[in-house]
Amino acid sequence: SSLTQVVHSAGRRFIVSPVPESRLRES
Amino acid sequence: AEDTGVRVELAEEDHGRKSTIALRLWVEDPKKLKGKPKDNGAIEFTFDLEKETPEDVAQEMIESGFFHESDMKIIAKSIRDRVALIQWRRERIWPVLQ
């Protein structure tokens, strides 16, 4: 899986996934 | 809302019933940040509209290494703008539930 999970010491979960190309702004 | 270069969107449909919502945040324009973001991913997290503040989440993202501390304000503002929009929509669409 390409998901990464980071749990902060306060307990909040951050789940990181790739941003689809279509959602990234072209520079 | 001002273009902060950081995009925050709902990660699930909002039915206006729960105080906790799932949000997804990603960097659209890294040039608007002072520090370099950790990677190019979308960060999904939950946010309690009644108990938490955007500054709380921004601080935790910085402590978790996603962003440099100099970008605290821009991250908090991006979350605050989206949360304000969600609350405005809730009051407009589901006023009875409020």
Task: Set down the secondary structure blueprint.
The complex is a heterodimer of chains A (27) and B (98).
Chain A: E1 4-7, E2 13-18
Antiparallel strand pairs in A: 1-2
Chain B: E1 6-10, E2 20-27, E3 41-48, H1 54-63, H2 72-93
Antiparallel strand pairs in B: 1-2, 2-3
Write up this protein.
The complex is a heterodimer of chains A (27) and B (98). Chain A is mainly β and 27 residues long. Chain A has strands at residues 4-7, 13-18. Chain A has a two-stranded antiparallel ribbon. The radius of gyration of chain A is 13 Å and the shape is elongated. In chain B, helix 1 (54-63) packs antiparallel against helix 2 (72-93). The longest helix of chain B is centred in the C-terminal third of the chain and has 22 residues, at 72-93. The two termini of chain B are 24 Å apart. The model of chain B has no long low-confidence stretch (mean pLDDT 92). Classes of the chains: A mainly beta (27), B alpha+beta (98). Strand 2 (13-18) of chain A pairs antiparallel with strand 3 of chain B.
